[in-house]
Amino acid sequence: MMQAQRTIYLPNTEGSILTFDVGTSALKAALFTPELELVALAFVAYQARAEGDRVEMEPGDYLGAMKECIAALGMPRKLLAIGITTQGETLIPVGKAGEPLRRAIVWLDARAEREAEEISRALDVDAFYQTTGLPEINGALPLCKASWLRQNEPEVFEQTHQLLLLEDYIRLFLTGESATHASLATSTGWLDVNTGDYWQAALDATGVSRALLPQLLPSGAPAGQLTTQAARYLGLRAGVPVFTGAMDQTAAVLALATRKNAAVETLGTAHVVAAATANPVFDTSKRVTIYRHALEDQFVCLPIGNTGGMALTWFLREFGLRGEDYASLDRLAATAAPGCNGVTFLPYLCGCVNPEPIRNARAGFFGAGLSSTRAEFARALLESAGYELRLFLELLREQGCQTETVCAIGGGAKSALWTQMRADITSRALVVPAVTEAASAGAALLAAWGAGMIPRGTYPAALTQERAVLSPNDATKPAYEAGYCRFRAMFEALKSVYHKEECF
Q: Is the peptide bond before 355 cis (omega within 30 degrees of 0)?
């Protein structure tokens, strides 16, 4: 675990909201004013244990990262509330005292594919999508991970008092109280997205009792107070109220909800576009994931790309750029022309959901010739995210989600070059909000609403400001139209290969 890094944005205030954003590779702790201005941010990077298709994390490492961040932040004299946002799908079985019984099974873990196949035979796959909003039954789902646990670690399963997701585990540690919310539980495979309640048929199919699942509360609901034990460990004052949050993508959508018909593009480890809707809109081809929103009776449509920034990390590591950073990649890509003289990259390093769900989809470069340069390969990698964004926006339009604005957040929004590429490829302006930590801001907003600091349903000015607006450059349009055509044609040409099991 790295030492916590801290950034100060405002002088420390008398009273603040503390949030934890617990991601795949790092934990962020942030302090916000009651008006949702970011006071300070600290983060600690960590690394999950990966072995084959298994990806695990010591639960104590998350708690240790929280402690490190709090020490780095420097707490205000008065802490008003605590909010949490996390990744979905990471599963932690706990005993009666709330103690973890094994390492967390991280969302990237795919050990439960055999169990996924078993559950697919027990549940109608079309009914599964129409009920859960999840396009497929796969090994990443807690539904399948729980079945794996029951069959492969029966001694752990028998001791399990509750099956918790990551936010639930952290909140249990903080308060001693067990609860979850529909925004997070949507990622499990055992929640009915239409009703916001547990789906008994899914539980029956996997052998999980409802008694093993925590109670469902609304997002932004009071969920207990910081216990003396947790406060002592973290270096905080006991008694601070803790509130339910929202899954990270949903929290970001919530924080930026004042923009009319806005889609939120998160380009981090993965590439996700999210748009709020009043009704669940199920795609007949199962290309769009449907989540419960943090707002009651609203939903979030999500076209998902499994690889975003992950592809950049891979490229830097494997293409002779070891020791370089993302800025170096930007500088290299800037020396190549738009469209990369025909070099095109398919970004499916770990399967794909769109243009259609194919588990065996793989990445590849196409169009290279003797004159192709390393810069063109680098730029093709960046351009592929733009082609994927255009595809996602087209999918949302097909589902009736009008997206007049795209708010770009995540690591990808920090690169002006990369963001401009995506604006050019999609022929629409990309807005970079002033809110640099949208998921944390969403968790802070829910805590502020829950604590009565801000009237529920209102948004402070800090969430409405913009850092940059990048308008499309029409001069690049011919090159990118041709590039998008190649991008789609490459996928169509390779589908028959992806579907041949003997090739994998």
A: yes
